[in-house]
Amino acid sequence: MPLSDAARAQWQIHLCVLLWGFTAIFGKLISLPALPLVWWRMALVAAMLALVPRVWRALRALPSRTTAAIMVVGVVVALHWLTFYASIKLSNASVAATCMALGSVFTALIEPFAARRRFAIGEVLLGIAAVPGVVLVVGGVPSGMHAGIAVGVLSAALAALFGSLNKRFIADADPLSITFIEMSAGVLMLSLATPLLAGAVPLFDAPLLVWPDARDFGYLFALAAVCTLLPFALSLVALRHMTAFNAQLAVNLEPVYTVLLAIVLLNEQRELTPMFYLGVVLLVACVFAPVLFRPRTIAPA
Questions:
Q1: Angle (CA) 56 58 64, round 5°
Q2: What is the pLDDT of residues 265-295, one digit of tens each?
Q3: DSSP letters for 52-100
Q4: First-to-last C-alpha distance (Å) of the chain
Q5: Which residue in 37, 53, 12 sits closest to 211, CA to CA?
Q6: pTM summary value
Q7: Which of 100, 180, 223, 246 could cysteine-pair with 49, CB 3.0–4.6 Å?
Q8: How many beta carbons lie within 10 A of that of residue 129, not counting itself?
Q9: Euclidean distance between CA atoms 131 and 151, whole angstroms
Q10: HSE toward the beta carbon, residue 243, CA cutoff 13 A
């Protein structure tokens, strides 16, 4: 029996989440500071897409107003990644990824404005239900990681914003062309804003054009191709058949994947407590609650 568009979208978004689970791992393994790390990630994705003729054909068909709007979303994406990797550098991969589960709370508040629809009380309640899980998962971390948590919460808000904004453009543009515009806009913004960021925010006081060594470049290439280009474009396809809120609920599983990978690859289990596992249970419950109790919330856009 063939899958419905909504069911296929669910499988697509969960594959994206699994691949995104590796992004925090790479962020910890790559020795570059957050600013050049994000610049290289976006530049490599843009360079890969520039080699695809389909992207240029789709770009020529886009109205200039739509292109400009997508560029603004690209700036938000860059700021989200910048704060996400800063959170990793200030804490660890597990904490930074766990903060992203708060995205469902922000999305429940932001998407109605972006999609120009009424607030759904059920979505707000499900988003709020994720908060205790995040508190339990993050609870007990050393005080030195609190700054990483604060930056991670900001990153989650930015992720909710760009996810809700992307929902407005996916019906009118090719996913690869949207990705190319957003990545290029992010590279341009970071290139122009680096002097301002370095002067105003000590955390980003680092050279932008840092040439990575062979090890870092290998990680960056994998991060760009496997954990960015593929899931970023695939998530845009999935968003055509699901709400940004339901997509964000699936993204709540990202910290679960990331923490499991961090245990195996980074030996971060020493920072985990029984509170963490209880928090994971609550986050997973929030992900599957709409499927079990409100199946109609996953509908074609």
A1: 95
A2: 888 777 667 777 787 778 777 766 665 554 4
A3: -HHHHHHHHHS-HHHHHHHHHHHHHHHHHHHHHHHHHHHS-HHHHHHHG
A4: 23
A5: 37
A6: 0.82
A7: 180
A8: 16
A9: 16
A10: 22
